[in-house]
Design a protein that fits this description.
By secondary structure, the protein is α/β, with parallel strands linked by helices. It starts with 5 loop residues before the first strand and ends in a 36-residue tail after the last helix. The chain has eight helices and eleven strands. Strands 8-9-10-5-11 form a five-stranded parallel sheet, with helices on both faces. A four-stranded antiparallel sheet has the order 4-1-6-7, with no helix packed on it. The protein has a two-stranded antiparallel sheet with strand order 2-3.
């Protein structure tokens, strides 16, 4: 059995008087989706950024793709000073895919859905290849966020890492008329021009592929965030459904999204962590046989109440995806199951 991609044991993050998440424990295996239920946006966001290597937990253990990212037990005095300057274990580049995170990993509203996802996939492929050449030493696991220092309370000063998404190596090539084609090799060298559309279709975004991001509905924005996190089949993906980018997302739309993400994740072999304030989302992933974890007492009570209300608990069959989106060595499925399209 393959080892879990994410293992958190009593992991906490506190900075001075600020307390974010505390004593959180969960595991996520490849091909599995774990929902983190929280009544506090900051706590859920901090957990996801910790998994991406952008927030360093202050106690407990957090292992992502074999790298220990937590600071260990609380210490003070000389021991704390030594820890502050000690080399920190970092994730290799392109191992963690990020959805949209305000001020950390944003996306231009002027881009179309297809352009944004194609750029992210190319960026992840470029950084992953560069990391393999350099041995992946001392680099961060995210793509758009780049190598950002630890973020106090989940807030970065400037969000400079996002500029990397507009770097020349990530731009589509220009044709004879000077027009750039976002469809050209969207998933790296050797990929077909049509690869991005089946991927978007699997996440219910095919009909919105040419739509500008500023014009998307909350449901479509949430699906775009998931598509950005999963583009290029990273080992781990983090999606924040509490981010202001998806303000207005309904519980029903959030639940349908996590169901589709479960189908995509199992085909890719990607471990996915989704933060939400909707107990219905947690019940939706549990119907797939995936785990859900409450980060605070009110969230745990809300989840228990929804479980007791008789939500369906039968595992849902995973949908198939084209072999191009699966990890190397996976068998290609016979067909692409039709997915729900989210209309504006």
């Amino acid at each position: 059995m393959e080892a879990p991609a994410i293992v958190a044991h009593d992991v906490s993050y506190c900075s001075g008087a600020y307390r974010s998440f505390e004593f959180s424990s969960f595991e996520v295996s490849p091909g599995e989706v774990c929902v983190l239920l929280s009544t506090e946006h900051a706590s859920a966001r901090d957990v996801l950024l910790a998994v991406a290597g952008l927030v360093r937990p202050t106690s407990g253990s957090l292992v992502v793709c074999g790298a220990e990212l937590a600071g260990g037990a609380p210490v003070s005095g000389l021991a704390a000073l030594r820890r502050a300057f000690a080399p920190r274990e970092r994730l290799p580049r392109a191992q963690v895919g990020l959805g949209v995170f305000e001020r950390v990993a944003e996306v231009s509203g002027a881009w179309t859905v297809e352009e944004a996802v194609a750029r992210e996939a190319r960026l992840r492929a470029h950084r992953g290849g560069a990391a393999r050449v350099r041995g992946a030493a001392g680099t961060n696991g995210s793509s758009r966020a780049g190598d950002i220092a630890d973020l106090a309370a989940g807030v970065t000063a400037g969000g400079a890492g996002h500029a990397a998404a507009c770097s020349p190596e990530c731009e589509p090539a220009a044709d004879a008329t000077g027009k750039r084609d976002a469809k050209q090799n969207p998933f790296g060298a050797g990929s077909r021009a049509s690869d991005v559309l089946p991927f978007l279709a699997a996440l219910g975004l095919a009909t919105a592929s040419e739509q500008e991001i500023d014009r998307l509905s909350p449901a479509q924005r949430a699906r775009l965030s998931a598509a950005l996190a999963l583009a290029g089949a990273p080992r781990v993906a983090v999606i924040d459904l509490t981010d202001p980018f998806v303000t207005g997302l309904s519980a029903a739309d959030a639940s349908m999204l996590v169901e589709d993400v479960c189908s995509v994740a199992v085909r890719m072999g990607t471990a996915v962590l989704v933060a939400t304030s909707e107990p219905a989302c947690a019940c939706a992933v549990e119907a797939f046989g995936c785990p859900a974890c409450a980060l605070d007492i009110p969230a745990a009570e809300a989840l228990d109440a929804m479980r007791a209300s008789g939500r369906p608990s039968e595992p849902v069959p995973a949908a198939s995806m084209p072999g191009d989106f699966a990890r190397e060595g996976d068998a290609a499925p016979d067909s692409l199951a039709p997915k729900r399209e989210v209309m504006a």
